[in-house]
Structures are given as structure tokens and as C-alpha cells.
Design a protein that fits this description.
about 270 residues, alpha/beta, TIM Barrel, 12 helices, about 45% helix, globular, OMPdeCOase_dom
């Protein structure tokens, strides 16, 4: 199945736009897990099991695994294997490099890890993102306007074709005729999201920044939905993963994910 097929099926089955971010920080793991042989994987397996009927996708953040060395790579592989078949997995590593290096990034993501989508920095242009488009069952989510305050330093620069993030949105629409792609737009920018959706009417949009970063859920749902009433993945990481540091961490994560699902569904007028 392609990323788009998995996304569509899971959104319908779980009635959800909640993307659960997997950002395992060893310092934040519950104390009772730290004595296990692989505490990161033990933690993530319980998180996944607790949210599998609530999430529309999972987004492992490569940096949090890579920082743990070989053990982190093994935990990443184990977490991916723990995610139910048919649920889309987005590897968040914001790859951006020249063509032959990009080919290796794409191979690692799609062939070695077996994920369904990746985040990619498009600022190096066509030859840097082309290798990701070679995987027609995947989806390259291109950074457009990220949630961090410093994104304004670059992505809000004015050009003779408009604000840079608008230029990137137009380019993504153009590139989508070659290979499957979407956009990454911070949930902290609801008004800009409306502008971006007007440009990229059909592309899926990954929206990090809900929860700890303060994204406005009602506005991002209303401004982000496509004409079919779908096309968004609203990511929450820390607010779900670390809802509790005790033995009830999985139950607390489930409740946090469910609370977000209800808020998002209320904003779109769906079932609660």
C-alpha cells in the first residue's frame, strides 16, 4: 500500500488526524523502565500499543534514536516493527543534501527501515529531492514554514515571486507532478497555513507544534483541511509521550492522544 492509501484508510478507521511523534529522550523515560535491557523500545512499544486505535500515523524522529548509537538504531527498528501494518510511518529526519547522498538517505528510509514517508529540506532544489520521488509509494514532506520562531529568518524572506514559504508551496505543487510529496507547516502559523492551503490545495500537510509549542487546534484544522475534509496530520510528541512519568505513562499517553483527537474532530465537525 502507498502512504496515501494507508493515510486515507487509517484516518477513516480511527476517525483521527492525530500523528503521534516518537521522540524518545532517555532522561524522560519512566524510572521503572530504566533497568530494562532496552528501555527506549519498551517505552515506545507501550506508547504504540496504547494509541494504535487513536493515531492516524506515527512519526519517529531520527535524531532521538541516532543520539543513542547502535542501541538507538535497534530501538528505531523495533518501534517501526511494533506499529500495526497499514498505519503510515513518517521518518522525521529533514534530509537535505546533493543527489548521490540523497539517494542513500532515501534508500535508508524506504528500504532499510521500511517507512512510508520522510521529511525533507527542499532548499537544495530538484536534484536533492528527486531521489525521494523515485519511491512512488512514499511521500516526501517538504519543509515549508516550520514551527520554530527562527524559521522567520529564512522562510519569511521576500522574493520577487512572493514570500519564500509561498514559493516553496508553489514548487511543491509543481514537484508533485513528478513524485509524491506533501508539506510541513508549523501549527504555530494558522493564518499562514490558510495561505499555503490555498496554494497547495491537494497536498497532505504535516503540522507539528501542537501542545508544548502552543499550536491553535481549531484554526489549524479549519485552515488546513482540503476540499475533501482531510489532508492533515497534526503531530503531537512530548504532550503524549510524557503525559506521565509514572507506571501509568501508557494510559496517560492514550488519554492525551484521545483528548487531542476529540478537540480536532470537534473543530472539523466530526464525531467525538
Amino acid at each position: 500500500m502507498s502512504f496515501f492509501e494507508k493515510y486515507s484508510d487509517t484516518v477513516q478507521r480511527n476517525n483521527s488526524f492525530v500523528c503521534v511523534g516518537l521522540d524518545p529522550d532517555p532522561a524522560k523515560l519512566p524510572e521503572h523502565l530504566k533497568g530494562k535491557s532496552d528501555p527506549t523500545l519498551a517505552f515506545l512499544r507501550e506508547i504504540i500499543d496504547a494509541t494504535r486505535d487513536i493515531a492516524c500515523a506515527y512519526k519517529p524522529n531520527f535524531a532521538f534514536f541516532g543520539a543513542q548509537g547502535i542501541a538507538g538504531w535497534e530501538a528505531l527498528q523495533g518501534a517501526i516493527q511494533a506499529i500495526p501494518n497499514g498505519m503510515p510511518i513518517i521518518l522525521d529526519f529533514k534530509a537535505g543534501d546533493i543527489g548521490n547522498t540523497a539517494e542513500q538517505y532515501a534508500y535508508m528510509a524506504y528500504c532499510q527501515l521500511g517507512v512510508d514517508a520522510v521529511t525533507v529540506n527542499p532548499l537544495m532544489g530538484t536534484d536533492a529531492i528527486g531521489p525521494f520521488f523515485a519511491y512512488q509509494n512514499g511521500c516526501a514532506f517538504l519543509l515549508c514554514l516550520t514551527s520554530n520562531p527562527g524559521s522567520a529568518d529564512i522562510l519569511r524572506l521576500n522574493t520577487d515571486q512572493g514570500v519564500l514559504y509561498e514559493v516553496l508551496a508553489h514548487k511543491a505543487v509543481e514537484w508533485s507532478q513528478t513524485g509524491p510529496c506533501g508539506l510541513v507547516v508549523g501549527a504555530t502559523h494558522p493564518n499562514d497555513l490558510k495561505t499555503i492551503r490555498a496554494i497547495a490545495t491537494d497536498l497532505p500537510i504535516l503540522l507539528p507544534g501542537v501542545g508544548v509549542q502552543g499550536g491553535q487546534t481549531n484554526a489549524i484544522v479549519q485552515n488546513g483541511l482540503n476540499k475533501k475534509g482531510s489532508g492533515i496530520l497534526i503531530n503531537s510528541s512530548r504532550s503524549i509521550l510524557y503525559a506521565s512519568s509514572g507506571t501509568d505513562f501508557a494510559e496517560a499517553a492514550r488519554q492525551s492522544a484521545e483528548d487531542l483527537r476529540q478537540v480536532l474532530n470537534s473543530a472539523r465537525g466530526g464525531k467525538r
